[in-house]
Amino acid sequence: MSETVKTASFEYLISLAKENPEGGYTFVLDGDSYQIEDVLEISTIASKKGYIVIY
């Protein structure tokens, strides 16, 4: 069984983060929603979900 390799550019991932009026961001990836304080957290989340992030 082969494993699927998922890649995404950092710029694309940042575009998925929506700024919250009360501060921070809501980031949705593969149907899972995350409340984050800084867009730099996106790389860690994507890596844990098996993505290779391209900078």
E-strand count: 5
The neighbouring-strand order within the major sheet is 2-3-4
The shape is elongated
Radius of gyration: 12 Å
If helices are DSSP runs of H or I spanning 4 or more residues, what is the number of helices?
Answer: 2
SS class: alpha+beta
Query: Distance between the terminal alpha carbons, to the nearest Å?
Result: 29 Å
Task: Write up what this structure looks like.
- The protein is of the alpha+beta class and 55 residues long.
- The protein is built from two helices and five strands; from the N terminus they run βαβββαβ.
- The strands form two sheets. The chain has a three-stranded antiparallel beta sheet.
- The radius of gyration is 12 Å and the shape is elongated.
Task: Give a quick rundown of the structure.
The chain is an alpha+beta fold. The protein has helices at 10-15, 41-48; strands at 6-9, 17-19, 25-29, 32-36, 51-54. Helix content is 25%, strand content 38%.
